[in-house]
Amino acid sequence: MDIPKFDETFLPILEVLKSGNVYKTRDLIDEVKSVFYFELTEEQLRQETKSGDLLIDNRIAWGKSYLKKGGYVFFPERGYVQITEKGKNHSSSLTVRDLENESSFFDFYKQVPTQSLISETPKSNVSSPQDLIDEGVKRIDDEVKSELLSKLKGINPYFFEKVVLRLLKKMGYGEFIETAKSGDGGIDGIINEDQLGLDKIYIQAKRFNDGKVRETDIRNFIGAMSGDTNKGVFVTTSDFDNKALEKARSAHHKIICINGEKLVELMHKFNVGIQIKTTYEIKQVDEDFFDEK
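Structure tokens predicted for Restriction endonuclease (293 residues):
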């Protein structure tokens, strides 16, 4: 089951509210999820928007908001929602286009002093405003990651090793020691997980433009790891073939394989090799401000 689009929550919301009872917004969201979206996986339920809200909760909330604009529900008091007579007699199918054709929906937008909104009914879009923001941010992020991977494939191999070690340090794995560039036995760096160096992680970083990491590369890496550690991280700008991954999984050592796609995701997440260009503020009404004491 896929996470529903915000417009796909219209009917489930009205179905939960059809009794006429007043619901707290939080209780409404939980009930809609429990009754209609119980097949979603834990991973789907934990998925977040770019602003940190739970995605499924955000889409149900936007569905509720659009139903209010269309006159299908109303808010009897702050934080509560109830169905209207119009909502009780809704059609068996309800889309964004249906809501946008409602006079109440158009009247809502006429309150906004923007000429483009006054001149015509808003055009249909199956994405909520939050979805549109997330989709735009994702496109920018994907372009940055693609450019970042291209940069990594073009840098000096020794500098690439430094990049990997800096990333792991930024991720909280402790201070690192670079190995000598000759006779390093296939080990590019060592991370001490504790200050005394009692627990070590060995690092291998391979900058490949073409081809994949093969089983022999993993075997050589395992062979180069001394007896004082059983943990290793093999990082590449390309990918691993199936035999290499199988060798890493079946080894007595704990070997983590990070390909180019995963590498740039981690660098993007921990701000290594990138910088924040612009920050936008998303504002909403402060309900507590208007709550009379």
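The first helix runs from residue 10 to 17.
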